[in-house]
Design a protein that fits this description.
CATH topology: Na+/H+ antiporter like fold
Structural class: mainly alpha
Strand content: under 5%
Order of helices and strands: HHHHHHHHHHHHHH
CATH architecture: Up-down Bundle
Shape: globular
């Protein structure tokens, strides 16, 4: 119950951040006296530094044996999702909704979550070590694969992007701190494990700050005036459809490969999740100071809330099934 409450509070905090951005956009917009861009950049670097410190080498080593499950989860995360979104590109290219399609591709290209995937798999009595392995590997692969999926389509938009700055940000704010964290794990790894809860709060604070900054710029430039209530309702419907489509397909693939109960749970739970942490920091690197970032993040935040809600219910039900068996 407490874990569910924390999730609810974070989703609530996201809503508060957006409301603050709506009423006080000038504090986060370009030209503000408060250096939120610098603060959030440092925060992003620290998130990936702590991520490097926290990676569980033992879980990674033991997880290597179950290669079929790992390959399936990573294929779902980085191939199945984009394959479901890409066929609709011709319908949206050149239209006023092309940016919304790009936002859905952004969801599709992102890695899986770390903490929530492991928590939900544990609740459902799935393969926890495999969940840790896939969540960790997914975050690392996403640094490479997410930009590769996005770049060809970002180039085709009418928004101006400085790609030298994008690559520099990806390296300096994400990849370099991660490598440094991995290098210093032997010295600071125990400290990171001991302060896991505090580091989780720090992650969430940085995410909320980036969300506020992103939506402030979008509200300040009045970019949401082009999104109607009907379109928002449609986005929610499409997000739910996307989740259940991948959940059904990963379940079918698991049966096809004869996964046992624990592996099937891990396959579906990790294969359907998308990381809000990586989404917010990658959007900052890929889209920089452009005002479109608010619209890019909107479907992702809805997906985040919906995936947590649905998987929590499924995990609780599956957890009770095991108790019933005994």
């Amino acid at each position: 119950m407490l874990k569910k409450l924390k999730v609810d509070l974070f989703v609530f905090a996201i809503a508060i951040s957006i409301l603050l951005a709506y009423f006080f956009p000038q504090l986060g917009a370009t030209g503000s006296k408060i250096p939120l861009n610098l603060i959030s950049s440092l925060g992003v670097s620290l998130i990936f530094f702590f991520y490097g410190l926290s990676i569980n080498y033992e879980a990674l080593k033991s997880g290597l044996k179950n290669w079929k499950l790992h390959l399936t989860v990573q294929s779902s995360t980085f191939l199945l999702f984009p394959v479901l979104i890409l066929p609709f590109y011709p319908l949206f290219t050149g239209t006023e909704n092309e940016l919304l399609w790009l936002a859905f591709l952004f969801i599709a290209a992102l890695p899986s979550t770390v903490s929530s995937s492991v928590v939900m798999v544990s609740m459902a009595k799935g393969n926890i070590s495999a969940a840790i392995f896939n969540a960790s590997i997914s975050g690392i692969l996403g640094i490479i694969l997410t930009p590769l999926w996005m770049m060809p389509f970002i180039l085709k938009t009418d928004v101006a992007f400085d790609f030298s700055t994008i690559y520099l940000k990806l390296f300096s704010e994400i990849l370099l701190p991660l490598i440094l964290g991995l290098f210093l794990k032997r010295f600071l790894g125990v400290w990171a494990q001991r302060h896991k809860k505090q580091l989780s709060f720090f992650d969430k604070f940085v995410i909320l700050l980036i969300i506020y900054k992103s939506f402030s710029q979008s509200f300040y430039d009045e970019i949401f005036s082009s999104v109607s209530l009907l379109e928002i309702i449609a986005i929610i419907g499409l997000v739910i459809l996307l989740f259940f489509s991948v959940y059904a397909l990963t379940g079918w693939i698991g049966k096809l490969l004869n996964f046992n109960r624990a592996d099937s749970i891990t396959n579906q739970f990790c294969g359907t999740k998308k990381s809000l942490v990586h989404g917010t920091v990658f959007s900052k690197a890929l889209f920089g100071q452009t005002s479109v970032i608010g619209i890019i993040l909107l479907p992702l935040m809805l997906y985040h809330a919906i995936q947590i809600l649905i998987i929590s219910v499924i995990a609780a039900k599956k957890g009770k099934e095991i108790k019933t068996d005994f």
